[in-house]
# Entry
Amino acid sequence: MGTFSHPVEVSGMDGQRFEAVEALVGTGSSYTVIPANLLHGLGIAPQERIEFELADGRMIERDIGEARIRVDGRNATTLVVFCDEGVSPLLEAYTLEGVRLAVDPVNKRLVPTGALLMRES
# Structure
């Protein structure tokens, strides 16, 4: 899949102030990646430090926390990874599912998708 960028807005859990970023869209990682300085500036604090496996097999640890994300007018609470300054923001699978958007790799865009429910009870 070729990569493409898409605008994303990030906020603290209160949803009072959103900051816009241009994020690379992907589905190869679990969580959305945002520079730590932006997250701290929005009052988002790390909640846990977890281990991640990189594409080359190396293991690294990074902080994660909760944020509000807005993509194409759709809002969701999501997990975000605190990354170093200079690392490009990434919009990834967990967040895309939360805002009910899917990747159209041919046309390099995000498309609305429905929510699935196995059964009501």
Remarks:
- The chain has a mean pLDDT of 93.
- The chain has one domain: 4-112.
- Residues 4-112 form a domain with the Cathepsin D, subunit A; domain 1 fold (CATH 2.40.70.10).
- The chain is about 10% helix and 50% strand.
